[in-house]
Design brief:
The complex is a heterodimer of chains A (about 800) and B (about 160).
Chain A: H1 19-23, E1 39-45, E2 51-57, H2 59-63, E3 67-71, E4 116-117, E5 123-129, H3 132-141, E6 143-148, H4 155-159, E7 182-190, H5 193-198, E8 202-210, E9 222-227, E10 233-237, H6 242-253, E11 260-263, H7 280-290, E12 294-297, H8 300-305, E13 313-321, E14 327-339, H9 348-354, E15 364-373, H10 387-404, H11 409-416, E16 423-424, H12 427-430, E17 444-445, H13 451-462, H14 464-476, E18 481-491, E19 501-508, E20 514-518, H15 527-539, E21 546-549, H16 567-594, E22 601-604, E23 607-610, E24 617-618, E25 621-622, H17 625-634, E26 643-649, E27 657-667, E28 673-683, H18 690-709, E29 739-744, H19 767-779, H20 790-796
Parallel strand pairs in A: 1-12, 10-11, 14-15, 20-21, 28-29
Antiparallel strand pairs in A: 1-5, 2-4, 2-6, 3-5, 7-15, 8-13, 9-10, 9-12, 13-14, 16-17, 18-27, 19-20, 19-26, 22-23, 24-25, 27-28
Helix pairs in contact in A: 6-7, 9-10, 10-19, 15-16, 16-17, 18-19
Chain B: E1 5-11, E2 14-20, H1 26-32, E3 51-54, E4 57-60, E5 73-75, H2 88-95, H3 105-118, H4 124-130, H5 142-158
Parallel strand pairs in B: 1-5
Antiparallel strand pairs in B: 1-2, 3-4, 3-5
Helix pairs in contact in B: 2-5
Classes of the chains: A alpha+beta (about 800), B alpha+beta (about 160).
The structure holds FE2/S2 (inorganic) cluster (2 copies).
Chain lengths: ~800, ~160
């Protein structure tokens, strides 16, 4: 395994590059842009879960003074004649709003405006008006007559014989089986499961349910659009995927990509919910229709119901195991609620399998999912991207499998999980690009894996062995307050192999500072900072000397965006390459100036140094980066700004690994679980900025604990959300959070920039199963469904 | 759009007069007047991103009609530090990586200031209690709490 060299900037706790602006409240977010002459956009949501518009009358709304545009499906007709003639302002075309590389694997099952409503809150109409009050009044004046259709609210009902067909329109693309409401699915078998079961000592079956939870980012979905002085459409928006938004706007509005500019300012949290064109298309359509700047912001209720959520999933798992704890076969099946449109529905449940199963060594594996349309709000990308649901099911199950052969859950995992040199056997078979980098046919290589150390160091930190024993003794006395400690193992990826693409431009100014232009979208994670640290390290300069520009599609080079834990690994690699090319150009000039061969020079602490680290002298003075930069820019033989653009796409997605541990108390009279301490031991490769990385873990753990204990979207029998805002969709507060401890088990991933893998998603996967396993330790009963509410705990105890 | 009235208040140490509508909330007025550090994450009093100090008390200003601020003095994040030198609370937050997306941060820092002004020696529980009206989805509160304790120490020693 490669070892880690010494660094000057990488691995240091430096302030975020955007820290000052954020800490002083500078106008840095979408909604902080000046709003002179800006109209307010509003969307009329469907009052029915499934309906067809019989008639719609907008004349009263249009006549209201102050209203500048009202749009309905009637404004988005099928194209008559050749496309491009623009007989109509807009034409009906199917597209997806899932922010993925072209061609998106998600079904193209959405239309700018449609006459069919598929969930409560679906787009009926949109208005732009001079004030919020007028816009709301205009919505009320739109008269709609609906033909109400029967609706389905569970995948089971949606699959039933005779169920209403949610996407019966003929012009959808890439839907697996629209007539059966099946949006996407996968079915893979490796090895021979029946034979393996017959040779097993124990066979265990389990069922699990992971609920619908929300991103809960504090900045609401918001966009501002306007036509600039050259009549180009500009959209400023809170997004994770500015380049995908630009391309999808082009499809939705029928405008050339070159006529669209998308700007991403600071983003107040995304967590996957903004890996999606949630409202940019309709906001921009209102600008196109009204010729005015428009601001469209969802309110918190719309954010909960008409944006995206995590896919609810129901699992069945059947596992064979030998007496000595060796796994012989795993069969995992997921039934996935896609909601009304299939955003990310082929890929999220793909991840559910391939980011979970392969960390367990097993020769006979079956993974299957069906993602099914229902008349509920749309599920989509969310931090972990399908992995948390699968981790809940599989990690609960593995605890029970360990118990079935009388093994400690930790020993069982040490025995069965992967080590460096093992293979990810599943991904090549269900991945978007099949067979990528699977040269041997055995699977994707796992070169760096610190999982064993994560398990051992985490166990030490939580006091696993002592507490397993002490708590069991405590609980045996039948006290009201029971105690438990539980653990899980986790894996994720670093970007999407073969797909995620990043470009970076680095240009040198005459004072030795550099501009770093990246298309990567920092959504609060610190991505801009760690990429700048990588560049500063290469160029032997300070972080302050790297000015980051991100992201304006007119200015910066293409990047797939912020998702799949890709920013540091993929975008960081592009920046590393660009910085290395800039460094080579700098050293060429330095060689001319000093007479030393370029290949024996280096950059360190703003100076040109020899390989030995000794300063390089020119006219008796140490040669500085600034002097070289000045020479390159103004010296007669050069007169060029040193500037390089590099791109990166990875053939692999090296998995980070983690082990997480929960120490809990549960009150057997009230059913309330209190998490006392939570430990995360994470192998994310090299850590570029430890405080920022640990902050990612803290935040992910609090989000995961929300999923474990308190968060759930609920709907009534008409498909209306019962959670109306943050008052009844609760997030964790400062009071109530357990003590958090994070340990980084550093490995050095040779394919990552300075040994990096990824950190942002993996820690969200473990809290729910870790707490569930601790609960099992405490009360000796498995609770199979999330959240682990007092009611479920009491039911499990037979007290309800 | 007529019937506006004059709202006199002191913002960040400066006496100001604003034209406001009767239905304007204090958050509307402050943002309209350029205090963009006042964030709005819900508009229903549940998230705390619009926290300002109102006569030295932390309040969520999306829940207050602007008219109720007649004669009051308000501190927003823009008034926490003057010039390039940051307030110790701001420095402490940046030192420990307590700022992530930053959307909740102005509100958190103002809650922190109110706490430390009142109690220069807060415990961890005090710090958590002081943040109880400020939601943060990014940090899990671990680092903000640490930052508040560090800042309090720093401010005490600085005196
Ligand atoms: S915006 Fe005021 S509390 Fe959320
Ligand atoms: S830092 Fe993002 S919500 Fe707190």
């Amino acid at each position: 395994m490669a070892t880690r060299p010494e660094f000057d900037v990488v691995g240091k706790d430096l302030w975020r590059v955007d820290g000052r602006q954020l800490a002083t409240g500078k106008p840095a977010f979408t909604d902080d842009y000046p709003q002179q002459g800006m109209l307010v956009g509003k969307v009329l949501g469907s009052p029915h879960a499934h309906a067809r518009i019989k008639s719609i009358n907008t004349s009263a709304a249009k006549a209201l003074p102050g209203v500048h545009a009202v749009l309905t499906y009637e404004d988005v007709p099928k194209a008559k004649g050749p496309i491009g003639r623009r007989a109509d302002l807009f034409n009906r075309v199917p597209y997806t709003r899932a922010g993925q590389d072209y061609p998106e694997p998600s079904p193209w099952d959405f239309f700018l405006l449609d006459d069919k409503m598929r969930y409560v809150g679906d787009r009926v109409a949109a208005v732009a008006a001079e004030t919020e009050e007028i816009a709301k009044e205009a919505l009320k004046l739109i008269k709609v007559e609906y033909e109400v259709l029967p609706a389905v609210y569970t995948p089971e009902d949606a699959l039933a014989e005779g169920a209403p067909v949610i996407h019966d329109e003929p012009d959808v693309l890439n839907v697996k089986d629209p007539q059966r409401n099946v949006c996407a699915g996968v079915d893979v078998t490796l090895g021979d499961l029946e034979k393996a079961y017959s040779e097993s000592d124990e066979i265990l079956e389990g069922h699990y349910y992971s609920q619908r939870v929300q991103h809960g980012q504090l900045e609401l979905h918001v966009a501002i659009s306007y036509m600039d002085e050259d009549d180009r459409l500009v959209v400023i928006c809170s997004t994770q995927v500015p380049f995908h938004v630009r391309r999808q706007l082009s499809t939705a509005l029928g405008l050339p990509v070159g006529k669209i500019r998308v700007i991403k300012p600071r983003v107040g949290g995304g967590f996957g919910g903004k890996q999606e064109m949630v409202l940019e298309d309709i906001c921009a359509a209102l600008t196109v229709a009204s010729h005015r700047p428009v601001r469209l912001e969802m309110d918190r209720y719309e954010d909960l119901t008409a944006a995206r959520s995590r896919h609810p999933m129901r699992f069945k798992i059947k596992t064979g195991v030998k007496k000595d704890g060796k796994l012989t076969a795993i069969d995992m099946r997921a039934l996935v609620d896609a909601g009304a449109y299939g955003s990310h529905s082929p890929t999220v449940p793909t991840n559910t399998g391939n980011k979970n199963l392969p960390r367990y060594k097993c020769d006979n594996v079956h993974y299957e999912f069906n993602a099914v349309y229902t008349n509920l709000p749309i599920a989509g990308a969310m931090r972990g991207y399908g992995t948390p649901q699968g981790a809940f099911a599989l990690e609960c199950h593995m605890d029970d499998v360990a118990e079935s052969v009388g093994m400690d859950p930790l020993e069982f995992r040490l025995k069965n999980t992967v080590r460096p040199g093992d293979k990810d056997y599943l991904s090549p078979h269900i991945y978007e690009i099949k067979g990528i980098s699977d040269t041997t046919g055995e699977g994707w290589p796992i070169d760096t894996c610190g999982l064993e150390d994560c398990i051992n160091q985490g166990a030490e930190a939580i006091g696993w062995h002592e507490k397993r024993k002490a708590y069991a003794e405590h609980n045996a006395t039948n006290p009201v307050i029971r105690k438990g400690v539980g653990m899980v193992c986790l894996s994720q990826g670093s970007g999407v192999a073969g797909i995620d693409t990043a470009n970076a431009t680095v240009k040198l100014n005459e004072d030795g500072s550099v501009n770093l232009l990246i298309g990567a979208a920092d959504i609060g994670t610190g991505g801009d900072t760690v990429i700048a640290q990588i560049v500063a390290e290469v160029l032997g300069t300070d972080l302050d000397n790297v000015m980051v520009i991100a992201t304006d599609t007119d200015v910066v080079p293409f990047d797939s965006g912020a998702y799949a834990s890709s920013t540091t690994y993929v975008s960081g690699n592009a920046a590393l390459k660009a910085a290395e090319e800039v460094k080579a150009s700098i050293l060429k000039v330095a060689a001319d100036m000093s007479g030393e061969p370029a290949d024996q020079l280096n950059l360190k602490k703003h100076h040109v140094v020899a390989d030995s680290g000794e300063p390089v002298l020119v006219e008796g003075q140490p040669l500085t980066l600034k002097e070289v930069a000045m020479k390159a820019m103004y010296g007669h033989d050069y007169k060029e700004q040193i500037e390089h653009t590099a791109h990166f796409v990875s053939p692999v997605s090296p998995p980070p690994f983690a082990a997480q541990f929960a120490d809990i108390e549960v009150d057997t009279e009230t059913g309330v679980i209190n998490v006392i301490e939570f430990v995360s031991a994470v192998d994310a490769g090299t850590i570029i900025n430890p405080e920022l990385a640990a902050g990612q873990v803290d935040g992910a753990v609090s989000m995961g604990l929300g999923q474990a204990l308190i968060e759930e979207m609920l709907f009534d029998e008409n498909g209306y959300a019962m959670n109306k805002g943050l008052i009844d969709y609760k997030l964790f507060k400062a009071v109530g959070m357990p003590k958090l401890q994070t340990i980084f088990v550093e490995t050095y991933e040779p394919s990552g920039p300075f040994g990096v893998k990824a950190v942002a998603e993996i820690p969200v996967n473990g809290p729910a199963p870790a707490v569930a396993n601790a609960l099992k330790h405490a009360i000796s009963v498995r609770v199979h469904e999330l959240p682990l509410s007092p009611e479920r705990v009491l039911r499990a105890l037979g007290k309800m | 759009m007529s019937n506006t009235f004059e709202l006199k208040m002191n913002v960040n140490g400066r006496d100001q007069i604003f034209d406001v509508h009767p239905h304007d909330r204090l958050s509307d007025v402050l943002r309209r007047e350029g205090y963009f550090g006042v964030k709005v994450g819900c508009y229903t009093g549940d998230c705390g991103t619009c926290t300002v100090l109102f006569n030295n008390e932390p309040i969520v200003c999306c829940m207050m009609l602007a008219g109720q601020a007649q004669g009051a003095s308000v501190l927003t994040i823009e008034g926490l530090s003057q010039g390039p030198k940051l307030h110790p609370i701001q420095e402490a937050f940046l030192d420990v990586g307590a700022v992530q997306c930053g959307f909740c941060i102005p509100g958190m820092m103002l809650s922190a200031k109110a706490l430390i002004d009142e109690n220069p020696d807060p415990t961890e529980d005090d710090a958590r209690e002081a943040l109880s009206a400020n939601l943060c989805r990014c940090t899990g509160y671990e680092r903000p709490v640490k930052a508040i304790l560090n800042a309090a120490k720093q401010m005490k020693e600085g005196k």
